[in-house]
Amino acid sequence: MEFTNIQKLENLLLVAVPRDLMDDEVIQLRREVLQAIRKYGSQMVLLDFSKVDICDSFFGRFIYSTSKMVELMGAQVIISGLQDVVIETMVELGMTLPNVDAVLDLDDALALSRSLSRRQNGVAPDEEMLLESAVAAEEE
Amino acid sequence: MAEVSRLWLPVRIPIRDDTHAVVAAQQGRSLAAQLGFTLVEQTAFSTAILEIARNIVKYAGGGDITLQVVQDGDRAGIVVLACDEGPGIEDIELALKDGFSTGKSLGLGLPGAKRLMDVFEIASRPGHGTTVAMQKWKRPTSH
User: Fold this and answer.
1) What pTM was estimated for this model as a whole?
2) Do A56 and B54 touch (CB under 8 A)?
3) What span, in angstroms and rounded, lies between the C-alpha atoms of A64 and B104?
4) Strand partners, B135
5) In B27-46, which positions are buried (b, 16+ CB within 10 angstroms) versus exposed (e)?
6) Among A81-95, A125-139, B84-98, whose mean pLDDT is lowest?
7) How far is CA A54 from the centre of its chain?
8) What is the pLDDT of residue B109?
9) What three-state secondary structure class fits B75?
10) Which end of chain B is more exposed for a tag (fewer CB within 10 A), N or C?
């Protein structure tokens, strides 16, 4: 399976949002994101907007629907790479993106993704130990 | 910087699908850049065109957008006329409210575009179509 706009980077799926987003592209891109999450077991999807210079509410709908679908796979969407003038226009337009976190750039996205996976890897052994001690206590 | 003294012919872009909507927005941006709009003004202007153009595709199935440079003394701006022969808008006041949508959208299209422009007017006859007229002036550069 070849993903044209998606790259895997550690636990992160890097999605290059096309500059001109069309209706049929949205459907295709969302499907590929879900397939890639399943393939790589990714926990975080980064929608990279650095190619986008005109961001209307159609993009907002794309971010919203993608984040909802990604959530249902137990992963999370974050966005990055918004140009300053695009940010100004989005806010003026009235676009708010509740429940979607943003980071400044890829560095921050990687840092966030690493801290998330460390936490998840770190929690599991602790729980195992708790379980073991609970089992041991019951046996006594 | 801005070539306000030349003759600007209107640019008409037929809108049938969302690739045309994108073309209209890019043409708007390029015209705004030629007039010397700042990057923020170009972005706001082209975003409003994209909103309105996608609305035409979605609700009317097609129409057209005309871009016309206007001058008032040494002030320059661009008028956007978006016309369709779709179902029209029953309640314009309601359609201009944030969050209202008859389609599956965020309901930002019309009120959002209005906020990005200096002038924004809608005329609609249900059953006959809708015309949106909007305009943005280039902010005067400091002397």
Assistant:
1) 0.86
2) yes
3) 12
4) B79, B119
5) bbbebbeebbbebebbbbbb
6) A125-139
7) 21
8) 83
9) strand
10) C
Indicate the CATH number for domain B11-137: 3.30.565.10
User: Nearest C-alpha of chain A: how many angstroms from B72?
Assistant: 26
Q: What is the DSSP letter of B139?
A: P
Q: A85 and B109 in contact by Cβ < 8 A? A: no
Give this complex's ipTM. 0.86
Q: At what angle do helices B109-116 and B39-55 cross, to 10 degrees?
A: 150
For CA atoms A56, A61, A62, A64, the dihedral sign is positive
pLDDT digit string, tens, across residues A38-89:
999 999 999 999 999 999 999 999 999 999 999 999 999 999 999 999 999 9
CA-based nearest residue to B41, from A96, A88, A83, A91: A88
Element (H, E) at B84: strand B75-84
Give the contacts of A3 (CB within 8 A, at least 6 positions apart).
Answer: A32, A35, A36
Q: Is the pLDDT of residue B100 over 70?
A: no
- Show the tokens assigned to A71: 């959530």
Contact map slice: B 66-105 vs A, CB within 8 A: 98, 104-105
Tokens 């879900």, located at residue: A34
